[in-house]
Amino acid sequence: MKVSWKCINKLINLRYITLSQFTQKITEAGFEIEKISNIYSINDLIIELNITSNRLDICNFKGLAKEIRAIFNLKFSDFTIINKSQKIQLNNYALSNNHMLLNQIIGINIITNLQLKSSPIWLIDYLKTYNIKSGHILDDICNYIKIKWNQDIYIFNISKIKHNTIRQILLNLQKNNNLRTNLTIQENNEFADILNYLSKNNQKKKINNCIYHFKKSDWNITKIILININNHHHNCQNYFIDAEQEALVMISTLCKGITGKSYNNYSYSQTQESIISIKKQEINRILGPTKQNNYKFLSTKNIIEILKQANLYILYKNKQFFVKVPKERSQDLKRKIDIIEEISRIHGFKNFIDSMPQKKKRNEGQYKKTVILKKIRQILYNYGLHEAINSSLIQLIDRQKNIKIHNSLSADQSHLRSNLIRGLINNYLYNINQQNDCVELFEIGEVFELKESQAINSRQITHLACILKNNIFTRKYWSEKPYSIDWFHAKGIFEELFEKIEAGIDWIDESMHENQVINETIQDLINFCKPNRRSLLISNETNNIIGMFGELNSKYQQDIKGKDSVYVFEINVNKLIETIQSKKHLEHRMTPYSLYPYVIRDICITLEEKKNIKSIKEIIYKTNSKSIESVKIFNEYFNKSKALRSVGLRIQYREFNKTLNQFDLDEIDKNIQLLLNQL
């Protein structure tokens, strides 16, 4: 669409807006400026705009002027010929602007007593702006209306049409009939083609070649017929009437013609007004804060003003905006997001913050703890365990270990717990008394550790505890009797848990903790288990004891019948998280297997009964780490009288780049002899 800078200034006062400001604002509002041409002969500018297919309501000057007024929030010089609030009377039907959709409307006017002369200079210059050469004044008026209103006006010499034909057309219009009469016009077949086009509504047929053009020498015409037709569903009926009325005013003013009665024919359909409701919260969520007003959201008052500025009808009620969409905007305003886009377009896209909100700094340690606990819960759920939640308030058990609460409600809730296992044991006993033989529970909660017998030095620590008792845990065959959970089954559950969360935990026997410092909390946990049926959990990082696993002492289940074992487990979650080292990539490299054979040497070593074999393996690997491929235990014998044990180890040697020769084997034998002497 081509827009004249002078013409647009006649409708809207752009005196204080430069061309660069105009183009920038229009572009930000969603218009695409293809070209700006300077017409030096008339001192004017032509701006070529690319109008999207869903904004056909601005394909005429008045619609475009309304849009520019809304974008710049300027006063609009209303040049409508008839009053907007006036209802349009057509064939005794009153069409309200808000309830009817005009599918087609035809207007016919007869003008007499014409005094034709040349087109005025302003009209010639106006057409020259759009590269239209001025011709006959009636043709110039038609072109002017087409440019300004995007409306087709057809003017014909009435002297070339039979009187009976005109009379028949007008009678049909008065009876509200469609133009279906077969017309026979002797002198002007083009006019018959146009009327047939109007009667058949044949949109595929091009009528541009059928328009009757006047010659400049046709100055003796005194009587014409003006036909106005609207086939554009997007056009407002006001635009159609305004175009026709302005054409009649121009003919009356420039040609001194007298306009007779107007005859109109139309078809319409009842339409339901589109009302879109949208919450202010949705607007704020999508648009975000503005750069003005200290990065606050648009206020309700601002939103209402913007919507009114966009020529929309607005009602605000119960924190919701009810937007009534005019029918000329029904093509582009259909959803909530369209209304939000209209708000941002009118207010200015650049006035909103175009970056994502800054991420609030969080406590990384606390966040990691939350994620790990969620993962632990999910893993234990998958194993079939049920989560228990017990109160942190308990009755007095040990004055030296439990923190007292002042003004407690009852004696049963007078102190803070120092472990979770005691609560799970109570859950276990309750379930057994209710004849629930399978008890597999876990709890993640806070415990309170008292130091130096003063509550002021106490610590709140997160612990994980489990209790497992299941007499139908597994079976070899479905036809056989099931087996109860045993030590290795229970231990395997927690080993797999540590592996899945990538925690570095080692298991050591209770008898091997001489070099380990055991605090009071861990010592209390150990006392819940049977002697020689418990294991300590140590951290790979600090080598400190952080938890315990073992078989529940029989004294806690004296009233329980049966001999099935019950296993308990508790660990310091804070210390457990410190041992987690997430591997973002594989630490090992892909290497090919050695193509050379290996050599095996079996040795037998005598160790103390409590000596850990892990330390022996470490010593062996240090002797010849490159050649030793593996160290495996293949046998073990105990001498109970001397508290010793003999362990058979199989050492496998292999070189990557050669076959081991006799010299290499002799060296291996010497190393083994030295190793045996050390042990």
UniProtKB/TrEMBL annotation:
InterPro entries associated with the record: aa-tRNA-synth_II/BPL/LPL, DNA-bd_dom_put_sf, Fdx_antiC-bd, Fdx_antiC-bd_sf, Phe-tRNA-ligase_IIc_bsu, Phe-tRNA_synthase-like_B3/B4, PheRS_beta_core, tRNA_synthase_B5-dom
Boundaries of every B5 domain copy: 271-354
GO process annotations (BP): phenylalanyl-tRNA aminoacylation
A cellular component annotation (GO) from this entry: phenylalanine-tRNA ligase complex
A GO term, aspect molecular function: RNA binding
Keyword Metal-binding: yes
Top EC class for this record: ligase
Matches recorded under Pfam families: B5 (PF03484), FDX-ACB (PF03147), tRNA_synthFbeta (PF17759)
Residue stretches making up the FDX-ACB domain: 594-679
Cofactors that this protein relies on: Mg(2+)
Keyword annotations of the record: Aminoacyl-tRNA synthetase, ATP-binding, Chloroplast, Ligase, Magnesium, Metal-binding, Nucleotide-binding, Plastid, Protein biosynthesis
The enzyme's E.C. designation: 6.1.1.20
SUPFAM superfamilies named among the record's database cross-references: Anticodon-binding domain of PheRS, Class II aaRS and biotin synthetases, PheT/TilS domain, Putative DNA-binding domain
Official protein name in the record: phenylalanine--tRNA ligase
Organism listed in the record: Spyridia filamentosa (Red alga)
